[in-house]
Amino acid sequence: MLEHDIDVYYKTVLELVSLAGKVVSQGFSVTKRIETKSNTVDLVTEYDQRIEEILIKQLREKFPTHKFIGEESSAAGHEATLTDDPTWIIDPIDGTTNFVHGFPMVAICVAFAIGKDVIIGVVFNPILDHLYSAVRGKGAFKNGRPIQCSKQTELGLSQVIGAYGYSRDPAVLDAKSKNQRMIIEKAHSIRMMGSAALSLCLIAEGSCDAYVEYGAYIWDYAASDLIAREAGAYTCDPTGAPLDLSHRRMLCAATKELAAQISPLLTHIDYVSDSKKPTIMNRFLFLTLISVFVGLASSVPDETCRRLSNSDCEKCLKESGCAFCQNNKQCFAYDLYPTHPPCSTSELKFKTCFADLQTWLIVLGSVGGVILIAIIVIIICCRKKCIQRARRRDQAKEDAYGRKLDERRVEAGIRSEERKQAADNIQMILPSICFVAKQCQHQWRSPLFRSVLVINQRQLATSTKQKKDSKKQDNNVVVQSTTENQIEVATFKEKAQQAAKDTGYSVIVIAGVAALGGLCYLMLRELYSRETPNGIYKEASKMCLANTEVQDALGTPIMVHTTPQVGSMRINNVRAKVFDEKGHRSMTLAFYLTGKERSGVVGVKVQKNISNKFVYDYILVQLDRPWRGRNIIQVHQNLDTSKPAPQALDL
Fold it and tell me: Where are the transmembrane segments (predicted)?
């Protein structure tokens, strides 16, 4: 790359960092909208998002072929992989927690890398007006003056900077605490700045001698690592291996000898790469669901939408790509804040003012459940038809077998008749034989008598044999009849069992449909009925927002939320307590208001009248700081003077 190109990049980033520093300085002492990312201590403000948008937009206009890695865009799910292409690595505010609490260790970090090597590094603290910069091979500078590290070689004389980060995993905390203890036992002192970039810059200018970090990202120390190395410091992996910007850990020391003394004391922590983080996949699935449901809008500048804030919903949503918060009347570009909108989903309206995003998601889930049950019913019906078809085949086989049995019975009957007729014939022949025998008793020795006797004996034997065969065939017919009856009983039993199964399946399907209907009814009643805590909460919040004293005391715009934490992505129900008071059903609930000047807690008490409808006893707002000598603002009070409003809220 030409030297001229590097000078152009360097001057451009200095101008843009100076412009972004003015935005940070303006927002340092004002009330900020705070959101969370991976946990409750991993914070982000609207200034982080705004500054990163300014830097990326200006750099992309000047260098359209370059790639970008930004902290907030990576948190939103964009790819954060360093390649050989020219890449700008941006951390809009390093030390966001310091920025939120008013601690001046805040920095804007911009690095430029080619072939995975950082060429330019700029770290700017606009609160203290400290500008650190470096170009590879040209040294490090602070506000234009060259700087160098301390060249300290002894750990016992060194001032070391440590960090705990925002991870609250017990194993990580134990390892970091052990590292801090091992270092403090041997070092001169230990400090914690809350900013990885500024910690490395302090080593570069010689104020500190070493820094150990586990859990930082590439945008936290890409720029400051170059500044420290150009100032003469030594950077490496805490294990002593060469530094890899994607491994999320580093050891920086004034000298290599000092780093060699610190490395054996450390308990090392391994981190997965960004591409394996589950939060990115969760956000991708969430964005996919939203895009399928409402369709992603074309990109639109955030300034275009924000000009329509404090107007009505219809004007905001007429602009393609804008979303509207009902509670604070903010209009913003939805594709810039897809996972961290400035209000809860119950107040967010996108594409239509007819219903909020939470309602659409519930309806979508209900429709999906109905479709799933319909699919199950179709599968059961198809299975039932298959069973009926198999049953018809079995019935056809049984009918064929029955016809065969009938044919066998007919054949057995014919044989039985034949045997009976033969027996009758024998009985008719026997009397004539006896008569002949009597007539020929005296001639029994004659050849004629002997021949007749032999014939009669043969006929008698034949008749006896025929009787035995007939009896055996009768027994076979009886056995076949018994077997047929058993088959018919078994077939009836199988039919009864199959009928019981079909009845059970039908009962299960009917019960599922009834349960789904009841669930849909409960959800719709909870969302839209006034006689529920959520209904009272929505009505009371509108009354509070319309009250002029509340507007003057808190300062507009005013945000309404059900938990003390502002900007939570969870869908929370309002806290409510239902009880009986003097024979009437009563309910108290509380929610929170946050304005530009003050915040407050709203206490509401309602009681059912003779029409079984809730009426208000009082609506009070308890302020966190006095306003015109008052701590409580009365928004609504029952005309019944026998029920005075409480002087303080019991929450």
Answer: 360-382, 503-524
